[in-house]
Design brief:
CATH topology: Growth Hormone, Chain: A
Pfam family, one: PTR2
Number of strands: 2
Helix content: 55-70%
CATH superfamily: MFS general substrate transporter like domains
Low-confidence stretches: 238-258
Strand order of the largest sheet: 1-2
Order of helices and strands: HHHEHHEHHHH
InterPro entries: MFS_trans_sf (IPR036259), POT_fam (IPR000109)
Structural class: mainly alpha
Radius of gyration: 24 Å
Membrane topology: Multi-pass membrane protein
Subcellular location: Membrane
Keywords: Membrane, Transmembrane, Transmembrane helix
CATH class: Mainly Alpha
Distance between the termini: 46 Å
Shape: globular
Strand content: under 5%
Number of domains: 1
Largest sheet: 2 strands, parallel
Mean pLDDT: 82
Amino acid sequence: MGPIWASGILLITAYAQQSTFSLQQAKTMDRHLSKSFEIPAGSMSVFTMASMLSTVVIYDRVFVHVARRFTGLDRGITFLQRMGIGLVISILATLVAGFVEVKRKKAAFAHGLEDKAHSIIPISVFWLVPQYSLHGIAEAFMSIGHMEFFYDQSPESMRSTAFALFWLSISMGNYVSTLLVSLVHKFSAKQDGSNWLPDNNLNKGKLEYFYWLITCLQVFNLIYYLCCAKKYTLKPIQFQSKESDSEEGRSVELANKV
């Protein structure tokens, strides 16, 4: 179960960028719904929560029925397939995030705001909604599949430990995110003298490269996961025979008489 567990770490690494660089992007974009009302940058995560909850709600209603038609399985898809779908959607989320950052920077350069770190760029903050929503959908598929995997495949005496591994993958994903940012800070400045992730002005950086770096890492992680899932042997389901059931019934009946 260890290799399957490790494959979920990078998804959390990608998910962690919503509270860091995606938040910085939102601060530089037009967040007005009306002349008097402006969306707080930190509230953009509501789209992640909404997409996650919506995916969970409609999964059993819609997706399972569609999957049954194409796969012929009574339960729709397995938890291993569900985790794989989550990894694919997470790749799309970071890929889209990179292209949105390119568009945001083009808008900044077009209006002469590339040197003004705290100026609001005339581009709607709702361009960030796709990446937030895709991260929520990916989290719904991967996290629930992860928990189902641990609960179903772990021994009964170790299920609490298995759930602890799930939360450990979340903490590991955040640590990997911090490590990755530190490495990018160190090596991108050495390469051409310009940091991909500047602290003072995001317009002067190359955040899109960072998103696409995470995308590439997730592609390799998906290949690794597919290899592990293909070789993984599911825990056999034990069935009681009719004889053992009848013997158990006679023993219960005898105990009641006594």
